[in-house]
Amino acid sequence: MEQKTKINAADGKQDLLITREFDLPLELLFKAYAEPEFVEEWMSNPYSTTKLLKQESKKHGSWQLESTDAKGNVVFRANGVIHEFIPNKKITRTFEMENTPFGVQLEIYEFEQLTNDTSKLTMHVIYESVEQRDQVLKLPFAQGINMAHNRLQDIIVRQFKIIYHDKEK
Amino acid sequence: MKTRRDIFQAMADPTRRAILTLVALQAMTPGAIADKFDSSRQTISKHIQILTECQLLKQEESGREIYYHFNPKKMKEIADFIEPFRKMWDDRFNKLETIMKKSS
């Protein structure tokens, strides 16, 4: 099966390319990045809620976002500066994960129309060093082991709820 | 338990990648591997040792000789290491697509 999201991370280089084709018109794809309420919605997941603390979509503007867990603890905070903001075309910004050793990344987002209903996003991320890039790439790999564990817990909890529910009926 | 050798670290070295490529074609003795390189036998032997510790190479005795075989199962782990990262973005983008479709 053809993969919709592709990652190109050449060996020994300090950047990576993420490409994705969407079943969305270009304007809607761009909106998902430009409008805070949409960013917050798609960046949130069952484990954490994402809020944009600041989003100045213009040259020299800055942004900051924060994710909190169900208990309200901050689990992730990132910020950066916007260098270019061209509607339906391009966003250039910096990205820094706060309190991590991953440094500042330069992110170049390019938005392209493919057909009236489809579009493409190319995300070029440049890291301070090869080592930092590789560390970031490996993060979900390491977390995957934890996630598998969490998922197992989730399944157990869910099954327990089903049993509990059946008893109540 | 902490593994002694990091498989990614093992793969990061160009000489070790070259050794893997050679052995992937056919099982080889340490001497035959070393002959393909300008480095000293000791250096190559150290590289082979690291690859063996990571289980990227397997030893097999044949008569008086030791042959090194390539372990494709371990290689699959390397090929897949970027997959969780890709999956993370794929999940995010799928969500983005669903949300934006609803909003149109």
The major beta sheet of chain A can be summarized as:
8 strands, antiparallel
Helix content of chain B: 55-70%
Could you say which overall geometry of chain A the principal axes of the C-alpha atoms support?
Answer: globular
* Proportion of strand residues of chain A: 35-45%
Radius of gyration of chain A: 19 Å
The helix tally of chain A amounts to 3
- Amino- and carboxy-terminal Cα gap of chain A: 43 Å
Treating each run of at least 4 consecutive H or I residues as one helix, how many helices of chain B?
Answer: 6
Spell out the helices and strands of chain A N to C: EEHHEEEEEEH
Sheet/helix structural class of chain A: alpha+beta
H/E element string of chain B? HHHHEEHH
End-to-end Cα distance of chain B, whole Å, is: 51 Å
| Strand elements of chain A, count | 8
**Percent helix range of chain A:** 25-40%
How many whole angstroms does the radius of gyration of chain B measure?
A: 20 Å
Short précis:
The complex is a heterodimer of chains A (169) and B (104). Chain A is built from 3 helices and 8 strands, in the order E-E-H-H-E-E-E-E-E-E-H. Chain A is 33% helix and 40% strand.
Salient structural properties:
A: 169 residues, alpha+beta, globular, B: 104 residues, mainly alpha, two-stranded antiparallel ribbon, 2 strands
Describe this structure in words.
The complex is a heterodimer of chains A (169) and B (104). By secondary structure, chain A is an alpha+beta fold. Chain A is built from 3 helices and 8 strands, in the order ββααββββββα. Chain A has an 8-stranded antiparallel sheet with strand order 1-2-8-7-6-5-4-3. In chain A, helix 1 (26-34) crosses helix 2. Chain B is mainly α and 104 residues long. Chain B contains 6 helices and 2 strands; from the N terminus they run H-H-H-H-E-E-H-H. Chain B has helices at 7-12, 14-25, 30-35, 41-53, 72-79, 83-103; strands at residues 57-62, 65-70. Chain B has a two-stranded antiparallel ribbon with strand order 1-2. In chain B, strand 1 and strand 2 form a beta hairpin. The chains are: A alpha+beta (169), B mainly alpha (104). Chain A binds chain B through residues 3-7, 9, 12, 18, 20, 22-25, 28-29, 31-32, 38, 41-43, 45, 121, 134, 137-141, 143-144, and chain B through 8, 12, 81-90, 92-97, 99-101, 103-104.
